[in-house]
Amino acid sequence: MSKHLHVDELRCFYNGHHDKPVVDGFSFAMQEGDIACLLGPSGCGKTTVLRSIAGFHSLAEGQINLAGRQISVPGHSLAPEKREIGMVFQDYALFPHLTVAENISFGLNGESQQYKDTELNRLLELVSLHGLAERYPHELSGGQQQRVALARALAPKPQLLLLDEPFSNLDVELRRKLALEVREILKQQGTTAILVTHDQEEAFAFADHIGVVYQGKIEQWASPYELYHQPQTRFVANFIGRGAFVPGIISDSGHIDTELGPVPCNLEEPGGTRVDVLLRPDDIVANRDQGQPAEVIHKVFTGTANLYTLRLPTGSTVEAALGSHIDCELGEQLSIELSADHGIAFTL
């Protein structure tokens, strides 16, 4: 099956600066209807990639193809308005003097009035704003404004929808809720979409595939599950989810010996190889009878669990998410053991 979007070996510089590329050797591909996310820390290049796809940033190397058309190569870039790409921005970018209905209909310029009316009603229904068509942006909540921006971007039926940190102005609870709602809307529509964010939980709630971006490159392109359980690089292991590294040695029998016990080995290295093993908070459980001692040095109550940072006798620290009924004070000793069914280790 041919790819709907193919981003191939992009190299980009900040405008006017050609000393160090902000994006270098950046590649990924998406099928039609896929929802993806570019996730990474500030300054890693993810927004530059989004702007390149949209047609707002030129390429030094590489190419971008969308729906069978070449839309960007060095020296030639199809105009943004000819790319059939929709955008939803961080600040919504709604027209303040236009009503909800007029903002959405702006994306339908050139169509007949009958088509506009039919599509407007469909889109208002789709984003759950049917009773608010005559309101102005300042009369809406942040979440409602974002839904208007989404409907306006979807109105021309774009080949691709780009979302640039679209939920970052909202409070945390609404951000997660809206990410799930927008995902459902896009899946209903069969719209191919890319979200840019630095928020892991938002990315996990929204995307089928996530590209973790670091220093202008994709470190790993995978499902949220794979990124968490099978990180391919140390950066991804550190960046995704929570956890801590403890030292280990690969044994001759093929597992990894750690101070908390053996862990399955994910590496093809000879016995005796020294490694760092990533232990997630859910890899560690309490065992009052046969566990190993660990001192509580930090504690966060999350409602369903207590997230403990624990110091082991060697001085290494690990994190453990234990049931909220296990309530220990700072300085107290906990008895723990490993419950890891797979290993995540990196050679030193």
Automatic annotation (TrEMBL):
One of its GO terms (biological process) is quaternary ammonium group transport. Residues 5-240 form the ABC transporter domain. GO terms for cellular component: ATP-binding cassette (ABC) transporter complex. Pfam families: ABC_tran (PF00005), TOBE_2 (PF08402). This is Iron(III) transport system ATP-binding protein. Keywords: ATP-binding, Cell inner membrane, Cell membrane, Membrane, Nucleotide-binding, Translocase, Transport. PANTHER family: PUTRESCINE TRANSPORT ATP-BINDING PROTEIN POTG (PTHR42781:SF5), SPERMIDINE/PUTRESCINE IMPORT ATP-BINDING PROTEIN POTA (PTHR42781). GO terms for molecular function: ATP binding; ATP hydrolysis activity; transmembrane transporter activity. InterPro entries: AAA+_ATPase, ABC_SmlMolc_Importer, ABC_transporter-like_ATP-bd, ABC_transporter-like_CS, Mo/tungstate-bd_C_term_dom, P-loop_NTPase, Transp-assoc_OB_typ2. SMART domains: AAA. PROSITE patterns: ABC_TRANSPORTER_1, ABC_TRANSPORTER_2. It comes from Pseudoteredinibacter isoporae. Gene3D superfamilies: 2.40.50.100, P-loop containing nucleotide triphosphate hydrolases.
